[in-house]
Amino acid sequence: MGSRRHDVIRAGLLVAALLAAQVAITPAVAQTKPGKRSAEPNRFGAIAYNRESQSWGVGFNFARARDANVEALKECGNGKCEVVHKFRNGCAALAVGPKIHAVTSGATRDEAETKTLRRCTELNKQASCNLVAWACTR
User: What's the pTM value of the predicted model, to 2 decimals?
Assistant: First the structure.
């Protein structure tokens, strides 16, 4: 009976040692897994526009989307301005055509401007459009 008791104690010590080792290893494993969150914080931007007055404004590189909207409206300077586009971690551009304006986002300024001009031309049935504003958050 004495040897059985020693075997049970050894087994218990082995289990305890394994559990302790697992607890010690688990945090390190958790830290090496890729996280869902980016190391860089989100940055927000917005473009405001009023067709009647041809006024526009941009707000960019803000930690909160609301702050970007407020800045864009403030820069627009006309009480009838509206935020026409909001974006995050990238760029956006505004183009004005004879009848309709267009605003799109892109990873870079060049991409945003190219997409915006293409979209504006489509919306205005192939009439020419002019870029009037752009902004990037990085």
Answer: 0.71
